[in-house]
Amino acid sequence: MFVEQAMPLIDSLYGHAMNLTRNPSDANDLVQETYMKAFAAFASFEQGTNIKAWLHRILKNTFINQYRKAQNRPFESALEELEEWQIGDAESRTAVGSRSAEAEAIDHLPASAVKDALQSIPEEFRMAVFLADVEGYSYQEIAEIMETPTGTVMSRLHRGRRLLREMLGEYAAEQGIGLTTKGAS
Amino acid sequence: MSDCGCEKARKALEEYLHNELCTEDATDIREHMENCVDCSDEHKVGVVLSAAVARACAETAPEDLRSQVMAQLRDIQTHN
Ligand SMILES: [Zn+2]
Predict the structure, then answer these.
(1) How far, in Å, is the centroid of ligand 1 from the Cα of A97?
(2) Could you tell me the mean pLDDT of each successive run of 10 residues in chain A, 185 residues long?
(3) Domain range holding B11?
(4) Is A116 an 8 Å CB contact of chain B?
(5) Which pTM was predicted?
(6) In a domain? residue B42
(7) What is the CATH number of the domain that holds B73?
(8) Measured between alpha carbons, how far is A152 from A143 in angstroms, rounded to an integer?
(9) B71 touches chain A (CB under 8 A)
(10) B1, part of any domain
(11) Is A42 near chain B, with CB under 8 Å?
């Protein structure tokens, strides 16, 4: 019963663990602990509710309790205060130029550059972006996993994507990627 | 037909991208973008960004991990 429901989600959980720990060895440990904890708590899982969200929540909490404690950093940081829609919401002209040039540049970036950028943004934002854009979770599911209101999910997602976009635009401009549509002719 | 305008469209683009809008609102945004290059280009950047992140971060769990987890689960079950 547990195995049938939980094992197909191992790629998704491993991706989440990689996203949080940023290294394969810690990600391995985190996934194993998540499965053991989930198995032990499976009786309390309400059948018919979202098992994906439940497992991801266990993984997130395991990470906070064990890995983050070791780093001695509180999960909820001063970032919460910055999480207002107006911050970073202004239209920023990016380094790349027009929007179509920007889209083209982002499309041509190496995966390593995208990964580096994602790993450098604050954890709360990174998690929201990962769950929405990699795993395709709904805002409601992300809210369940992160245990925050949907509005917080939206602002984290928004700020995370904005930061990512700025960083990738700068990277592309530095590398001269995607400049073909600007000033050609 | 009344256009929802750039301001409303921009505010809703991210939710549109993530399929979080109701059908009616999504239709408004889609119709606006058909006539607005700025907003449709902005949407394109969002789509490409999502795709780039998905490409960069898709992971497959190592086979070893899969079998370790299975072995641990079997172990617990037999000791209970
Ligand atoms: Zn517009």
Answers:
(1) 18
(2) 94 94 94 96 90 94 81 50 44 66 92 93 93 95 95 96 94 79 41
(3) 6-78
(4) no
(5) 0.84
(6) yes
(7) 1.10.10
(8) 8
(9) no
(10) no
(11) no
